[in-house]
Amino acid sequence: MRMIVYFLLPIFGLVLGVVVANLLSVSLTENLSLFIAVGLIITLDLLVEGTSQYLGGKFSLRSMLLTYFFNLLFAYFLLAIGELMRVDLYIALFIVFGIKLFSNLAYISQKFFSKLQF
Amino acid sequence: MFNTVIPLIHPDRCPPKKGGDLQPRHQRIAKGTLLEKQRTLKYKQGPQQDSVVKFSDNTFTWFLLLIFTGIGFLGALYYVEHETRFGSQRYSTEEILRTRVLSNRLRNLEYQNAHLESEIAELNLKTAEYYQHLSYKKAQELARFIGLIQQEGPGINIHLKDSSKPLLLGDNPNTGIIHNTDLVQIVNELHSAGASFIAINNHPVVGSTAISCSGPIILINGSRVASPFTISALGDPEKLMDATQKPSSFLKELQSYGITAQVSKADVIIPAYSQKSPTL
Predict the structure, then answer these.
(1) What are phi and psi of B85, to 5 degrees?
(2) Alpha-carbon torsion B149, B154, B155, B156, what sign?
(3) Contact B64 A3 (CB under 8 A)
(4) Does B82 sit within 8 Å of A22, measured CB to CB?
(5) What is the ipTM of this complex?
(6) What is the pLDDT of residues B102-122, one digit of tens each?
(7) CB contact under 8 A, B71 and A40
(8) Angle at B117 between CA B115 and CA B120, to 5 degrees
(9) Distance CA B36, CA B178 (A)
(10) Which of B263, B258, B261 is nearest to B164 (CA)?
(11) How far away is chain B from the Cα of A116, in angstroms, using its nearest Cα?
């Protein structure tokens, strides 16, 4: 029973996010897609990092939130500077967060499939 | 599978011993074995730390909730229609990007189209020029047979006179005079030698010209032509002279019968051929 709840809650979060996006009216600019993409990759990186920390035993919600906030802040700051200078600085963001994502993912796969009892 | 227990005591249906220690129904674990150590340790230490992955940590679920909300929000933001700054139409980011891609492709195709259209115009012009040239060439070829325009240029003149040798008894008088067939053969030779235009006594000889005989006169294009004949031929004078002076030429044959032929190079004028030629 608890397992079902624990799986449904993230899906409920997804639906909630979609609803909020529908209610929000954002003015479209040319680079809105770029901002969305950067936000997405930072969120995904944080997700994988969170699960890897949890499986390693050192999970702390406070640290997760802090890193999320400051990551987003700095990422959008870099995007703004890149737009001003007309230089593609977001490429660095994608590279770095992609690397982090995949390295954490490797750790998760090791931990998960070795400790879980079938 | 990894925790199978090896039976150490056979099941015994004998009545229990009186007064002795009551053995439990489950297997008695012998002291000093590995299994004993495992069992006692488990009860002493409590549950081990990372033996099984459990989702019983509350903060982690809240964390997951937050993250998935963020993902859903950002993903939906891409597809949901928003107000644009430029008009009252509502578009989504995805639609805007797609229109940009399509407009780029349209621009490329229009550019290629303009290129190809200019190529087509050039090629049309070229084909028109070729057709013009072709028709001009065809007209030039036909002029040889039609002769509608007066031609002037270098060529040769041949003066033919009937033979003035006195007739001997028993001679055929026809051998000494010029026949229409002789004229036809001379014209043929000149044509084969490269003459482009020929006239006999200022009557142009074209493709449909008939050189026919009617008694003492010869009809060319229906008009009377009488001896002596001056055949003017337009062409390369050297070649025409060689053709007439060859020992095997027809002129030599005629000269052997006594017909005089004087060949000279001159600038000849071939008059135009008109269909309304004077008839008999």
Answers:
(1) -80, -20
(2) positive
(3) no
(4) no
(5) 0.85
(6) 999 999 999 999 999 999 999
(7) yes
(8) 115
(9) 149
(10) B258
(11) 6
